[in-house]
Amino acid sequence: MSTQAPSMEAAVRQAGATGDVVWDRIWSQPPSAEKDATLLARELRSRRWSLITARLTREFGSLKGLRTIELGSGRGDLSVLLAQRGARVTLLDVNDSALSRARSRLEGLGLSADYVKGDLLAPDASWSSKFDVSLSSGVIEHFRGAERAEAVRAHHTALRTGGLAVVAVPYAWCVPYRIWKCYLELRSWWPYGMEIPYSRRELRKCARRVGFENAETWTMGFLQSIGVHWWQRVVGGGVRPEWADSNSRLDSMMGLVLLLMARRA
Predict the structure, then answer these.
(1) Rounded Cα distance, 175 and 183, in Å
(2) What domain range includes position 131?
(3) 137 near 111, Cβ under 8 Å?
(4) pLDDT, tens digit, for every residue of 40-63?
Protein backbone atom coordinates (compact mmCIF):
# COMPACT_ATOMS: atom_id res chain seq x y z
CA MET A 1 0.00 0.00 0.00
CA SER A 2 1.38 3.39 -0.97
CA THR A 3 1.76 6.00 1.77
CA GLN A 4 2.69 8.81 -0.62
CA ALA A 5 0.83 12.03 0.12
CA PRO A 6 -1.44 13.37 -2.65
CA SER A 7 0.07 16.07 -4.83
CA MET A 8 -1.09 19.68 -4.46
CA GLU A 9 -2.65 19.48 -7.94
CA ALA A 10 -4.65 16.42 -6.91
CA ALA A 11 -5.75 18.13 -3.70
CA VAL A 12 -6.94 21.18 -5.62
CA ARG A 13 -8.87 18.98 -8.06
CA GLN A 14 -10.50 17.15 -5.16
CA ALA A 15 -11.48 20.43 -3.46
CA GLY A 16 -12.91 21.76 -6.71
CA ALA A 17 -14.90 18.59 -7.28
CA THR A 18 -16.31 18.80 -3.76
CA GLY A 19 -17.36 22.41 -4.35
CA ASP A 20 -19.04 21.45 -7.61
CA VAL A 21 -21.04 18.78 -5.83
CA VAL A 22 -22.15 21.25 -3.15
CA TRP A 23 -23.39 23.86 -5.63
CA ASP A 24 -24.90 21.29 -7.98
CA ARG A 25 -26.96 20.06 -5.02
CA ILE A 26 -28.02 23.56 -4.02
CA TRP A 27 -29.01 24.71 -7.50
CA SER A 28 -30.69 21.45 -8.41
CA GLN A 29 -33.35 22.09 -5.74
CA PRO A 30 -36.73 23.10 -7.21
CA PRO A 31 -36.93 26.90 -7.42
CA SER A 32 -39.33 28.64 -5.06
CA ALA A 33 -40.90 31.85 -6.35
CA GLU A 34 -42.03 32.65 -2.81
CA LYS A 35 -38.50 32.29 -1.41
CA ASP A 36 -37.03 34.33 -4.25
CA ALA A 37 -39.52 37.12 -3.60
CA THR A 38 -38.81 37.06 0.14
CA LEU A 39 -35.04 37.24 -0.37
CA LEU A 40 -35.39 40.04 -2.89
CA ALA A 41 -37.62 42.07 -0.58
CA ARG A 42 -35.14 41.56 2.25
CA GLU A 43 -32.22 42.72 0.09
CA LEU A 44 -34.19 45.73 -1.13
CA ARG A 45 -34.69 47.03 2.41
CA SER A 46 -31.23 46.06 3.64
CA ARG A 47 -28.53 48.51 4.67
CA ARG A 48 -26.23 46.78 2.18
CA TRP A 49 -28.41 47.72 -0.78
CA SER A 50 -28.81 51.23 0.58
CA LEU A 51 -25.03 51.65 0.78
CA ILE A 52 -24.51 50.16 -2.68
CA THR A 53 -27.04 52.41 -4.38
CA ALA A 54 -25.78 55.50 -2.55
CA ARG A 55 -22.17 54.75 -3.53
CA LEU A 56 -23.01 53.98 -7.17
CA THR A 57 -25.16 57.09 -7.47
CA ARG A 58 -22.37 59.23 -6.01
CA GLU A 59 -19.83 57.68 -8.38
CA PHE A 60 -21.83 57.55 -11.61
CA GLY A 61 -24.77 59.91 -11.08
CA SER A 62 -27.39 57.26 -11.83
CA LEU A 63 -27.81 53.49 -11.98
CA LYS A 64 -29.59 53.72 -15.32
CA GLY A 65 -27.45 52.46 -18.17
CA LEU A 66 -24.62 51.22 -15.94
CA ARG A 67 -22.91 48.10 -17.29
CA THR A 68 -22.70 45.66 -14.38
CA ILE A 69 -21.51 42.09 -13.98
CA GLU A 70 -22.39 39.88 -11.02
CA LEU A 71 -19.68 37.25 -10.55
CA GLY A 72 -20.82 33.91 -9.14
CA SER A 73 -24.31 35.28 -9.57
CA GLY A 74 -26.40 32.35 -8.37
CA ARG A 75 -30.03 33.50 -8.47
CA GLY A 76 -28.85 37.07 -9.09
CA ASP A 77 -30.43 39.11 -6.29
CA LEU A 78 -28.21 42.15 -6.90
CA SER A 79 -28.62 41.93 -10.68
CA VAL A 80 -32.42 41.87 -10.35
CA LEU A 81 -32.41 45.03 -8.25
CA LEU A 82 -29.94 46.75 -10.56
CA ALA A 83 -31.93 45.82 -13.65
CA GLN A 84 -35.06 47.22 -12.02
CA ARG A 85 -33.18 50.51 -11.68
CA GLY A 86 -32.21 50.50 -15.37
CA ALA A 87 -28.73 48.97 -15.29
CA ARG A 88 -27.52 46.76 -18.15
CA VAL A 89 -26.75 43.61 -16.20
CA THR A 90 -24.63 40.56 -16.94
CA LEU A 91 -24.66 37.46 -14.75
CA LEU A 92 -21.69 35.08 -14.67
CA ASP A 93 -21.68 31.69 -13.01
CA VAL A 94 -19.89 28.40 -13.57
CA ASN A 95 -23.04 26.42 -12.80
CA ASP A 96 -25.59 25.86 -15.59
CA SER A 97 -28.46 25.33 -13.15
CA ALA A 98 -27.74 28.61 -11.36
CA LEU A 99 -27.76 30.54 -14.64
CA SER A 100 -30.95 28.81 -15.74
CA ARG A 101 -32.70 29.77 -12.49
CA ALA A 102 -31.46 33.34 -12.76
CA ARG A 103 -32.67 33.59 -16.36
CA SER A 104 -36.12 32.27 -15.46
CA ARG A 105 -36.31 34.66 -12.55
CA LEU A 106 -35.36 37.80 -14.47
CA GLU A 107 -37.49 36.92 -17.48
CA GLY A 108 -40.42 36.25 -15.16
CA LEU A 109 -40.00 39.78 -13.83
CA GLY A 110 -39.83 41.20 -17.35
CA LEU A 111 -36.13 42.07 -17.05
CA SER A 112 -33.44 41.59 -19.68
CA ALA A 113 -29.87 40.48 -18.99
CA ASP A 114 -26.86 38.76 -20.50
CA TYR A 115 -25.80 35.38 -19.12
CA VAL A 116 -22.25 34.04 -19.24
CA LYS A 117 -21.06 30.62 -18.15
CA GLY A 118 -17.57 31.10 -16.83
CA ASP A 119 -15.09 30.64 -14.02
CA LEU A 120 -14.28 33.87 -12.22
CA LEU A 121 -10.73 32.55 -11.66
CA ALA A 122 -10.28 32.20 -15.43
CA PRO A 123 -11.39 35.50 -17.01
CA ASP A 124 -11.65 35.75 -20.77
CA ALA A 125 -12.12 38.48 -23.34
CA SER A 126 -15.91 38.23 -23.22
CA TRP A 127 -16.03 39.94 -19.83
CA SER A 128 -12.62 41.49 -19.18
CA SER A 129 -12.27 45.29 -18.83
CA LYS A 130 -15.82 45.96 -20.04
CA PHE A 131 -17.94 46.93 -17.04
CA ASP A 132 -18.63 49.98 -14.92
CA VAL A 133 -19.41 47.84 -11.89
CA SER A 134 -18.42 44.31 -10.84
CA LEU A 135 -20.25 42.70 -7.94
CA SER A 136 -20.45 39.55 -5.91
CA SER A 137 -22.27 38.53 -2.74
CA GLY A 138 -21.42 35.42 -0.76
CA VAL A 139 -18.93 34.11 -3.32
CA ILE A 140 -15.25 34.74 -2.62
CA GLU A 141 -15.35 33.24 0.89
CA HIS A 142 -15.60 29.83 -0.80
CA PHE A 143 -11.94 29.97 -1.86
CA ARG A 144 -8.79 29.36 0.17
CA GLY A 145 -5.13 30.24 -0.05
CA ALA A 146 -3.92 32.26 -3.02
CA GLU A 147 -7.30 31.85 -4.73
CA ARG A 148 -8.84 34.29 -2.25
CA ALA A 149 -6.86 37.17 -3.72
CA GLU A 150 -7.46 35.85 -7.24
CA ALA A 151 -11.21 35.90 -6.64
CA VAL A 152 -10.90 39.59 -5.72
CA ARG A 153 -8.70 40.11 -8.79
CA ALA A 154 -11.54 38.86 -10.99
CA HIS A 155 -13.57 41.91 -9.95
CA HIS A 156 -10.67 44.15 -10.97
CA THR A 157 -10.24 42.34 -14.29
CA ALA A 158 -13.90 42.79 -15.23
CA LEU A 159 -13.80 46.57 -14.79
CA ARG A 160 -12.98 49.35 -17.19
CA THR A 161 -10.60 52.01 -15.93
CA GLY A 162 -12.40 53.98 -13.22
CA GLY A 163 -14.94 51.23 -12.59
CA LEU A 164 -16.15 50.24 -9.12
CA ALA A 165 -16.15 46.81 -7.46
CA VAL A 166 -18.68 45.81 -4.80
CA VAL A 167 -17.89 42.67 -2.80
CA ALA A 168 -20.00 41.33 0.09
CA VAL A 169 -18.67 38.54 2.31
CA PRO A 170 -19.35 37.11 5.77
CA TYR A 171 -17.47 38.98 8.49
CA ALA A 172 -14.96 36.90 10.45
CA TRP A 173 -15.69 38.69 13.74
CA CYS A 174 -19.46 38.22 13.68
CA VAL A 175 -20.01 36.17 16.84
CA PRO A 176 -23.56 34.81 16.15
CA TYR A 177 -22.52 33.72 12.64
CA ARG A 178 -19.37 31.91 13.83
CA ILE A 179 -21.15 30.09 16.66
CA TRP A 180 -24.06 29.05 14.44
CA LYS A 181 -21.78 27.90 11.61
CA CYS A 182 -19.69 25.85 14.05
CA TYR A 183 -22.84 24.26 15.47
CA LEU A 184 -24.15 23.29 12.03
CA GLU A 185 -20.78 21.87 11.00
CA LEU A 186 -20.59 19.76 14.16
CA ARG A 187 -24.05 18.39 13.37
CA SER A 188 -23.08 17.86 9.69
CA TRP A 189 -25.90 20.23 8.69
CA TRP A 190 -23.82 22.99 7.10
CA PRO A 191 -24.99 23.16 3.44
CA TYR A 192 -22.42 25.45 1.75
CA GLY A 193 -19.19 23.47 1.83
CA MET A 194 -15.97 25.34 2.55
CA GLU A 195 -16.66 28.89 3.71
CA ILE A 196 -13.92 31.05 5.21
CA PRO A 197 -15.11 34.52 6.28
CA TYR A 198 -12.97 37.62 5.85
CA SER A 199 -11.62 40.17 8.27
CA ARG A 200 -11.39 43.83 7.27
CA ARG A 201 -7.61 43.51 7.13
CA GLU A 202 -7.59 40.54 4.76
CA LEU A 203 -10.18 41.99 2.41
CA ARG A 204 -8.38 45.32 2.13
CA LYS A 205 -5.04 43.56 1.71
CA CYS A 206 -6.42 41.45 -1.15
CA ALA A 207 -7.88 44.55 -2.80
CA ARG A 208 -4.58 46.43 -2.66
CA ARG A 209 -2.61 43.41 -3.85
CA VAL A 210 -4.61 43.09 -7.06
CA GLY A 211 -4.47 46.80 -7.92
CA PHE A 212 -7.56 48.46 -6.44
CA GLU A 213 -7.35 51.93 -4.96
CA ASN A 214 -9.63 53.82 -2.56
CA ALA A 215 -10.82 50.57 -0.98
CA GLU A 216 -13.63 51.15 1.53
CA THR A 217 -15.13 48.58 3.90
CA TRP A 218 -18.28 48.56 6.02
CA THR A 219 -19.63 46.02 8.45
CA MET A 220 -23.34 45.70 9.01
CA GLY A 221 -26.19 43.52 10.17
CA PHE A 222 -25.35 42.45 13.76
CA LEU A 223 -29.03 42.39 14.73
CA GLN A 224 -29.80 40.73 11.41
CA SER A 225 -27.30 38.01 12.30
CA ILE A 226 -29.04 37.37 15.60
CA GLY A 227 -32.41 37.32 13.82
CA VAL A 228 -31.21 34.92 11.14
CA HIS A 229 -29.09 32.54 13.19
CA TRP A 230 -30.88 32.47 16.53
CA TRP A 231 -34.43 33.79 16.45
CA GLN A 232 -35.67 31.84 13.45
CA ARG A 233 -33.78 28.62 14.05
CA VAL A 234 -33.21 28.37 17.79
CA VAL A 235 -36.09 30.32 19.33
CA GLY A 236 -38.32 29.07 16.53
CA GLY A 237 -39.80 32.45 15.77
CA GLY A 238 -40.52 31.58 12.13
CA VAL A 239 -40.79 35.06 10.63
CA ARG A 240 -37.73 37.15 11.41
CA PRO A 241 -38.54 39.97 13.87
CA GLU A 242 -38.64 43.54 12.59
CA TRP A 243 -35.68 44.63 14.70
CA ALA A 244 -33.45 42.26 12.72
CA ASP A 245 -33.39 44.73 9.83
CA SER A 246 -32.42 47.67 12.06
CA ASN A 247 -28.97 49.21 12.28
CA SER A 248 -27.00 48.60 15.45
CA ARG A 249 -24.09 50.34 17.14
CA LEU A 250 -22.44 46.92 17.18
CA ASP A 251 -22.51 46.63 13.38
CA SER A 252 -19.05 48.15 12.98
CA MET A 253 -17.55 45.59 15.36
CA MET A 254 -19.58 42.43 14.81
CA GLY A 255 -21.73 42.90 11.72
CA LEU A 256 -22.83 39.88 9.72
CA VAL A 257 -21.72 41.30 6.36
CA LEU A 258 -18.40 42.87 5.40
CA LEU A 259 -18.78 45.08 2.33
CA LEU A 260 -15.89 46.21 0.15
CA MET A 261 -16.15 48.98 -2.42
CA ALA A 262 -13.00 49.68 -4.41
CA ARG A 263 -12.21 51.62 -7.56
CA ARG A 264 -10.00 50.49 -10.41
CA ALA A 265 -7.32 53.07 -11.18
Answers:
(1) 12
(2) 8-171+199-220+251-264
(3) no
(4) 988 898 889 999 999 999 999 999
